[in-house]
Design a protein that fits this description.
By secondary structure, the protein is α+β, with helices and mostly antiparallel strands. Helices cover about 35% and strands about 30% of the residues.
């Protein structure tokens, strides 16, 4: 059953009927436009510069009404389209008082209109469209979420605004309609995606697409979403990573591949986690994690220049500088500096747990050694990594797809990149020994409970691919949403996803 209309909505529905009675269709089939608002402003300015007669410049613009200021026989308003805003001027001498009254009585903030006339400059210097004709092209029934009054040239002007975070996320369409800075976030996000693709294409990488529905999930430590294929009578998983399919392509002969797309992880939400998110992964044959570090620095500098026009930017009050080489520090050294524990001195989980408890640190009684180390990283190191930093050499038991360091089988060649106090990217020198990989899968099956998100299922087809021969390679994964958070100075991932997942709520 449809919800009840509010009184304000009922008022607007009544206006629709009055418009139709007057022979005006509030939802016409066709629209005319000769200029965007910015094209109109530019054309007028160019005519002034060229010494032409700008007052003879006629334009037709369309867009949403964003402000209205009735003043008896005249009315000022602003129309906004995708390029910007333009002031409108309605005068009874030009339109007749009846038509000015119609505008003031039956048009509302949020309505879409078509407006035609001549451009001129007001006494205050604002380029304005003096209307010769106008019509409504889409009547808004629901008012924009809120409004505030501002005094402009001594007159009260009403503008739509929306600030409540939850309402903004639930009704992103309304958020975008009234908050220009939110629209800019997603323009920057689009520029980030273009720049990442341009950079990787320029480095000889091939963009590919791999399955979203997978018979076996893998490539990351996360709990998957499960769905069912009715025709095949088969349970499938929404992918948690692209990794295992992209590395199959290295077996097939491609040397540099990447994918940008959605991953899905059935995990909790936080300021930096959303159940579906956009990931970039690339795999580079004959490279190792040191070379991937170098490429990452170059890629993010390029992306910042293209998306922001600069490589220094502010995030939550801190200026982050991508010009300088990233700090590179071993994970063991960072933990030693942060909490005073040398993890190399405690080779078993029980020993490390006791050392943590002696320092007064929380230590799960069931966690593996690698998970204890990762917990210390997340709690005591990561929040302080504001400037770009690579943390490298990780425990083997939380990195089952990474190659062990020569002479140190308990440590793998893995790095994570941090910035703004959060993890941004993750990369390995990839394991390409199929026998070692099979042993790792079996080990994970023995050491982790069936519902533990760190557990990797056995993937026989991936092992089959590896047995054909996989070249040595470096792999990389980065959350595009988190990069957008950094570049747009947004502290919550929901700010940079158009339609974030939210708990169901009764309206």
């Amino acid at each position: 059953m449809s919800r009840e209309y509010t009184q304000l909505e009922k008022n607007r529905l009544e206006k629709i009927e009055r418009l139709r009675e007057a022979g005006l269709e509030p939802y016409p089939h066709r629209v005319e436009r000769t200029h965007t608002t910015q094209e109109a402003l530019a054309a007028y300015t160019a005519a002034e510069v060229n010494g032409d007669a700008p007052e003879n410049l006629k334009v037709t613009v369309v867009g949403r009404l964003r402000s209205m200021r009735p003043m008896g026989k005249i009315t000022f308003a602003h129309v906004e389209d995708g390029s910007g805003r333009l002031q409108l001027f309605l005068r009874s001498n030009d339109l007749g008082q009846e038509k000015v009254d119609l505008f003031n009585r039956y048009f509302d903030l949020g309505d879409f209109i078509e407006a035609s006339g001549e451009l001129f400059r007001t006494r205050s210097g604002e380029i304005t469209l003096r209307l010769e004709d106008f019509r409504i092209i889409s009547k808004a029934i629901t008012p924009l979420p809120a409004a505030k009054d501002e005094v402009v040239d001594g007159e009260v002007v009403r503008h739509a605004v929306l600030s409540d975070p939850e309402l903004r996320y639930r009704q992103r369409y309304a958020d975008l309609a009234v908050n220009l800075e939110v629209r800019q976030i997603f323009r920057i996000r689009a520029a980030i995606l273009r720049a990442l693709r341009d950079f990787l294409d320029g480095q000889g990488f091939l963009e590919v697409e791999t399955p979203i529905l997978q018979p076996i999930y893998g490539g990351a430590a996360a709990r998957p979403f499960i769905t069912h294929h009715n025709q095949l009578h088969q349970d499938l998983y929404l992918r948690i990573s692209f990794e295992l399919y992209l590395k199959r392509l290295l077996v097939g002969g491609y040397e540099r591949v990447y994918e940008i797309g959605r991953d899905f992880r059935n995990e909790g939400v936080s300021f930096k986690h959303n159940p579906e998110f956009t990931q970039l992964e690339f795999y580079w044959a004959y490279a190792d994690y040191q070379q991937v570090m170098d490429l990452t620095e170059e890629m993010l500098r390029y992306t910042a220049r293209q998306a922001l026009g600069r490589i220094q930017f502010e995030y939550q009050g801190q200026v982050i500088d991508l010009e300088k080489p990233w700090r590179r520090v071993q994970l063991s050294q960072a933990i030693l500096e942060a909490v005073g524990i040398d993890i190399h001195a405690y080779p078993t989980a029980d020993q490390l747990r006791a050392a943590m408890q002696a320092k007064g640190l929380a230590a799960s009684p069931t966690a593996t050694r690698g998970k204890l180390i990762d917990g210390m990283l997340g709690d005591y190191v990561e929040p302080n990594l504001i400037q770009p930093t690579f943390m490298y050499d990780y425990p083997r038991d939380i990195s089952p797809l990474a190659k062990s360091k020569a002479g140190d089988p308990s440590t793998v060649e893995r790095f994570e990149g941090f910035m703004g106090g959060m993890e941004l990217c993750n990369a390995f020198t990839e394991l390409n020994d199929p026998l070692d990989q099979e042993a790792r899968f079996l080990e994970m099956g023995r050491e982790y409970a069936a519902d533990d998100e760190e557990r990797h299922p056995m993937d026989e087809d991936y092992l089959r691919a590896m047995r054909y021969g996989m070249p040595p390679n470096g792999g990389f994964g980065m959350g595009v949403d988190r990069l957008t958070m950094l570049f747009t100075d947004r502290p919550n991932i929901r700010e940079v996803i158009l339609f974030p997942h939210l708990r169901e709520r009764e309206d």
